[in-house]
Amino acid sequence: MKQLNILPQEGFTLTLTLMVITSLLIVINFYIKLIEPNDMQQTHMIRLFRIEPSRYFQSAELLEASSELFFRSLSFGIFFHLNHFAFWHGLTFALFLAGSRLGIKVLCLPLYGRGKDQENPESLLNILFYLGIGIGVFLSLFFLLLGKQFSPYPFFSWYTGIAGLIIWLVSYYRLKTYSKLNHLTYLTLTHETMKEKIAKIDNIELLGIEMKDRDINVSELSPLLFENLSGISYLNAIFLKRMSRYLQRKILVRLAILSVLFGIELLFLLFFKEKINIPMNEHSFSKFLFLSAVPGYLIYIGESYSKFCFYHLDRPLLRYNFYRERENILATLKIRFLYSIKLNFPIFVALNICFGTYYFNFFTPKIDQIIILVITQAISMILFSFYFLYLYFLLQPFTEGLKSKSAMYNILTFIIYYMGYQLFTFTKSITMPILLVSLGIIVVILIIGYLAVVVFAPKTFRLKS
Questions:
Q1: Which residues contact 290 (CB under 8 A, 6 or more apart)?
Q2: Quick one: pLDDT at residue 12?
Q3: What is the torsion angle, in degrees rounded to the nearest 10, for the CA atoms of residue 194, residue 196, residue 198 and residue 202?
Q4: How many C-beta atoms surround the C-beta of residue 344 within 10 A?
Q5: Does 212 have pLDDT greater than 80?
């Protein structure tokens, strides 16, 4: 394959490129919703003060465009003036931003009420938002990798400004004449949604674990799935089977993020592999191995899984002594750990593909190194699956409202995230012996944690008041 000669952008041109890709590829995704249930001002004006939606949105968009055009033109114009360019370049880009943002809102109006979730008219827009963010990040990095082959200057020309003005006028006219706007607004902004948003503000801790009816698997389950289970094990197994859709959706989000990162990795290898000279020795491999294990603390499901199980199963049962008996706690720990491994396994495979691709491109493949790489990933998955389960059973920090009342739990949770961050800075001094000792210490910690649960959990695993 012919190697592309790509020169990176510098200084003023790089700043303009960042302005363009950030504004038009990433931030624009936050403007796809014209009707926004989370905007209490919209709900108050339309539902409480009974302003006609069409009139409200026309006035709101005109006011927003005027204020943003003024402040953006001023800030962008000053920026260009300080860099010895004409002031009007900032005005043209501000016009294009105003047009593109109103345009995307109007284009997305027909998507309200089109999703599978009929209780949530904006469900399809939520999917589009996350998809747009992923594609935007991917394209942003792609344009940055193109270097000087991508020119941001056309986005600051008079032609772009005129195009932005035309887009805004056409979009505003479409907004004014869109016959279904009032109906879609009343469908989306209901009194129930307003009460729901207020309730969410009052119970912010519950946002991450709330479920809807569609998240519960109500289909008939085969008895063969649970024929060898009884008691607490059966209760946990059927609970996790019924509630699996919610947890699997969280896994899919993480896999989508990894897919975007893997795409970026492939672009990097396609364009820049020949320009990177990595010494293929044991020290460089140990650093790579170390870095491959650290991201597990961010990507694997850990604390959110424990919170979910507490709120939807343990919370009402912790009042009973039998539920806190040692045998029942160990049975619960076992089945939840195994299910955690089952949930995290697709992430484990995806991480091995990402790091394996990098390894095969920059290192001479060796069987022992490949085995160590997979084992390291497995230990990382087990650690971050067990860590929060151990803390949960030993400290059980949560109240009925999911607020943490345990200072020790909060400290240890902070430590794991802080240590994960600090480990990224430790790679320069890592060696293979240090890495192997670290992995051994992790295994010892897992064993000690299990013994601590056996001894102390029956006394500490109770509902906080």
A1: 423, 426, 427, 430, 435
A2: 86
A3: 180
A4: 24
A5: no
